[in-house]
Specification:
Blueprint (H helix, E strand, L loop, with lengths): L1 E5 L9 E7 L12 E6 L2 E7 L14 H10 L4 E10 L9 E3 L2 E4 L27 H13 L5 E2 L2 E4 L8 H10 L3 E3 L5 H7 L3 E11 L12 H24 L2
Parallel strand pairs: 1-4, 1-5, 5-11, 6-8, 7-9, 9-10
Antiparallel strand pairs: 2-3, 3-4, 5-10, 6-11
Helix pairs in contact: 2-5
Bound molecules: hypoxanthine (HPA).
Hypoxanthine (HPA) binds next to strand 5, strand 10 and strand 11.
Length: 246
């Protein structure tokens, strides 16, 4: 089954015919919310709101381990994570939908692995290509199905938040090779890899990153909601098409 993890602006999934809600207990504590099971465009999907249905859980407080574990518990094999981001690369402007292919992780202090504790052997995972190629293809074909422009290939820089970045931090991130900046992409992606779930992210650019273009003098937080809302209608179309491609 395919799961969709909704981020800011997507705590409910329009068009989802809900069939069940499952409150899942995990060895890692409480997920952000019960998993919603339903039917999207004729295909079964699971949905989870990363920040909770009331959007009350900050990026650094999300229990990523419990969320990913809960999705596997209900039978999920593939995940599309929706993430709102700031755009660093010039073509990643507000409103753009982007399919990243790489990650740089700047987060700290988050519970970032299932493989720890006294009775766990040390284990490593390969993370050279952090996103699943088959889920990326599924998203890319879905965007083509509904003629939605999608920028393919970008490096997602995951910051700690909840504050936005300084202009100098964005300049450093650009030097590092980041094209996008967001707060929730890690450790979500690596946790999914640890338990062999196929995971890719669909990023929605909601603002120019700090110090860039219209954000040269600051990120206008009050205009983000409008950009996000307009883009979410397109995101919904792509997700429904992706569900149909199962
Ligand atoms: N920085 C970090 N996370 C974000 C941003 C940003 O500019 N916009 C949306 N999520």
């Amino acid at each position: 089954m395919l799961a969709l993890i909704g981020g800011t602006g997507l705590s409910r999934l329009a068009g989802l015919e809900v069939t069940a809600r499952r409150a899942v207990r995990t060895p890692f504590g409480e997920p952000s919310c019960p998993v919603t099971l339903g039917d999207l465009g004729g295909a079964p999907v699971a949905f989870m709101a990363r920040h909770g249905y009331g959007h009350t859980i900050a990026p650094h407080e999300v229990n990523y381990r419990a969320n990913i574990w809960a999705l596997r518990e209900v039978g999920v094999r593939q995940i599309i994570a929706i993430a709102s981001v700031g755009g660093i690369r010039v073509d990643c402007a507000p409103g753009a939908l982007v399919l990243p292919d790489q990650i740089i992780d700047y987060t700290w202090g988050r519970e970032a692995t299932f493989f720890e504790g006294p009775d766990q052997p040390v284990r490593h995972i390969d993370f050279t290509h952090p996103y699943s190629q088959s889920v990326r293809q599924r998203i890319s074909q879905a965007a083509r199905d509904c003629a939605e422009p999608l920028i393919e290939g970008a490096t997602y820089g995951a910051t700690q938040g909840p504050r936005l970045e300084t202009a100098a931090e964005i300049t450093r991130m650009e030097r590092d090779g980041c094209d996008l900046v967001g707060m929730t992409g890690m450790p979500e992606a690596s946790l999914a890899r640890e338990i062999e779930l196929e995971y890719a992210a669909l990023a929605v650019v909601v603002n120019h990153a700090a110090g860039r273009a219209s954000s040269v003098n600051g990120v206008h937080l009050d205009s983000l909601a409008g950009t996000l809302e307009a883009a979410m209608a397109r995101v919904h179309r792509v997700l429904a098409a992706a569900a149909r491609r199962g």
